[in-house]
Amino acid sequence: MRLYSTLSRRLEELPEPPGPIRMYVCGPTVYQRAHIGNARPFVVAMWLRSWLRASGYEATLVHNITDVNDKIYAAAPGASAELAARATEWYLEDTGDLGLGLPDALPKATESIPAIIRFVEQLVERGYAYPAGGDVYFRVTRDPGYGRLSGQRPDQMAPDEDQSPLKEDPRDFALWKATKPGEDTSWESPWGRGRPGWHIECSVMAEEAFGPAFEIHGGGLDLVFPHHENELAQSRALGHDFARIWMHNGMVELGGEKMSKSLGNDVSLRNVLDTWGREVVLLFFLRAHWRRPIELTDETLAQAKAEVETFRNFFLDAEPGVEDGERILRSELAAVLDDDFNTPEALALFHSWRAREERSSLRYGLELFGLGSIAEPPQAPPEVAALAERRRDARAAKDFAEADRLRDELAAAGWEVRDIAAPPGYRLVPRT
C-alpha cells in the first residue's frame, strides 16, 4: 500500500502486512462543539485503520485530546478545566454518532504533564531550548532542517504569534508557558508554575504511545505549519526519527449562502448529523480524495444523500430470498484503496458493483466505511408495521379507499409502503 507523505512529497510504501502500522492523528482542542471540518481527520483515520486491518495489518490509532490551550482559557476564564471536560464529552458523543467506533487510545494533554516536563528539560540540556522569565522557548536557528515539512525557509518565515520580548528570536516558539492571570490550570516545573505549549503536547503524546519512531502522523492541512513543523523539530532535536509518513487531509470548505438554507450557518458536526444523518455525512466525505478540499453546501450534501438512497434502494429492490453468493471482489477494491487510499474511486467501484449486482461485494465495501446500515432492511416500529398489515388486509378485501387512507397515514408517519409479490406482500421503506 502507498500513501502520499507531506514530508517526502511523494507516495511512500507501507511495510508488508502485518506491519505494524502505528498512526497518531491530531485531535481537537476542546473548547466548543466540534465543527464538520474537525470530523474529517477522525473519519479518514478510522477508515484507514479499518482498511489496514482488513488487509492483514496490525494497525493502531491514537487520537489525542488537547485539553489545555490558550483557546480554552480565552473561552472560559477561570473555568477552563470544566469547559475542556464538557467539550471532550461533546466530541466523543458527536464522533461516536458517526458509527465508526473509537480510536485505540485518546490521550489527553493534561495526563502527560510529567512526560512533557522531562522532554522540555532534555531540549534545554542539549541547547535546543532556553528558559526566559518562566517560559521556555525552542531555538529555531539550532535546527538546520527547520521548514523541511512545510517547505518554508526560516529566513523568510513570519515571527511566531507569541511576540514575547523574552525570546531570543521572534520565530522561536514556546515549549512551556508561565501561568498568567486568569489561567486556572497550572503545574509545577523547574521554571515555575505553568503549562505546556501546544506543539510539545503532541510530540510527547505520540512518543508516549509509540516510542520515538512510528509509521503515520495525520491531521488537517492547516496543521502543517506551525504545529507539525514544530513537532518534527522538537523530536528531531532529541535524535528521534518521529513519524515516517505525514498525512494531511484537505480542508472542508464552507459554501456560504449555498449552505445556509439547511444548516442555518451552524456547521457543527452535531447540527450536520442531526440535519442530514450519519450515512449522508460519511458518504459526503467518501466522495473526495482525502488530500483534496471538499465543499460543504446544500447541493453537495443532497448529492451524497441521493447516492445513499441509490444504494439503499438497490438492496431494498432485491427479491426476498435472492442469495448474494460468496464472491467478494476484494482485489478490485484493493487496486484503488492501496493506491493512496482513493475513496472516490472506491465509491465509483461501489456503483459499478451495484450495476453488476455484486451484492456481497457492495455490502462488504460499505461496511468497511461504516455504511453497512445501508444494506440492512429498515425495521419499522410496531405501530407502523400494524398500519401496513391493516392496509394489506384492506387491499385483500378490495377496500381500496381504506387502503389508500392507510397509505397516507403511513406516509405521514415517515414510511413508504411498496407492494411486492413475495410474502408478506409489501415492503416498508423510510421516506426520504
Outline the structure in words:
There is one protein chain. By secondary structure, the chain is an alpha/beta fold. It folds into 3 domains: 2-249, Rossmann fold (3-Layer(aba) Sandwich), CATH 3.40.50.620; 298-375, Four Helix Bundle (Hemerythrin (Met), subunit A); 382-430, no CATH class. The chain has helices at 36-54, 70-75, 80-96, 113-125, 198-210, 224-237, 257-263, 269-276, 278-286, 298-316, 330-337, 343-355, 359-368, 382-396, 400-412, and strands at residues 2-5, 10-13, 21-25, 59-63, 129-132, 135-138, 173-178, 194-196, 213-220, 242-249, 252-254, 294-296, 415-419, 426-430. The strands form 5 sheets. A 4-stranded parallel β-sheet has the order 4-3-9-10, with helices on both faces. A 4-stranded antiparallel β-sheet has the order 5-6-7-8. The longest helix has 19 residues, at 36-54. The model has no long low-confidence stretch (mean pLDDT 93).
Write the layout of secondary structure elements.
Blueprint: E1 2-5, E2 10-13, E3 21-25, H1 36-54, E4 59-63, H2 70-75, H3 80-96, H4 113-125, E5 129-132, E6 135-138, E7 173-178, E8 194-196, H5 198-210, E9 213-220, H6 224-237, E10 242-249, E11 252-254, H7 257-263, H8 269-276, H9 278-286, E12 294-296, H10 298-316, H11 330-337, H12 343-355, H13 359-368, H14 382-396, H15 400-412, E13 415-419, E14 426-430
Helix pairs in contact: 4-5, 5-6, 8-9, 9-10, 11-12, 12-13, 14-15
